[in-house]
Amino acid sequence: MELFSPIPLDEWRETKETLHRFTQVVGKVRLAASVRRNHWWNVPFHLTGRGLTTRPMGLVDGNPVFTVDLDLVDHRLVVTVADGRTASFPLPGHSVASFHRQTLETLAALGIRVELPFPRPYRLPDADRPFAEDVEHATYDPVLANRAWQVLGQVALVLEEFSARFSGKASPVHFFWHSFDLAHTRFSGRALDRTAPADPVTREAYSRELISFGFWFGDADLGEPAFYSYTAPEPEQLAGDPLAPAAARWVEAGGSHLAVLRYAEAREEADPRAAVLAFYEAAYRAGAVRAGWDVDLLACPGGITDPEWPTPPP
């Protein structure tokens, strides 16, 4: 299988916009039925060998323990209860409205009752339109949806390799359904000044100094897939620091800067995987050094913190 298969945004824009909203419907189920974690880490999806999963949830809200999976191989939504019961329905052929209705009906058939908080898109152009009224987004191409999942799986493994190099507080490699991106975040441990006004979601997400890394498929601002990194709060003169590989650059975004390596440019490198790792490492060191992190103390060579740990046998 080709590493980093081509997936230009224009080729699958309609499927992406529909699938994005499907994930938001399921994501709001997860938001309602899971225990809150710091930085909203309870909310994202994780990758599986077939697609995306909410992970187990329920119990604390009176529901049985259950998961909701988006199977992007057989293209079905699958609800599984811990007692072994399961129910599913196909993803193709649905508008957002019918997907929303079918999801709630499938949960109810298994004895699961979930009240969705704000049952409408989050931070999307149609954020004022309830899911139940969206018959516009109804395109689902199984081939393109599967290719997107394959790309996410490959990128996730690169991010896992990169995340192993850090011994401090760090997030899992997880998929945020609100922005439809794969991300991993490192923290210095320093709390931030909270006097600046911000909405509750942003306040919790950025309550600590961090450097984040990820991949997204493109949006209205950057109309193509790209690997990215940003430091928050952004240190002075960060955007003047060099990045790797040569194709990477700093891009202004909302008054701050993103380090960006476009997906198409990474694919052109002799070793795309090494190029992406080099990009994340360069962006991390730029932000960490500028922000005064102890880079050596937080390093974790080979994913090992014990310097006396023996080399595994061959």
TrEMBL record:
Pfam families assigned to the protein according to its UniProt record, in alphabetical order: DUF5996
InterPro entries xrefs: DUF5996
Domain of life, source organism: Bacteria
Protein's recorded name: DUF5996 family protein
Species name: Kitasatospora purpeofusca
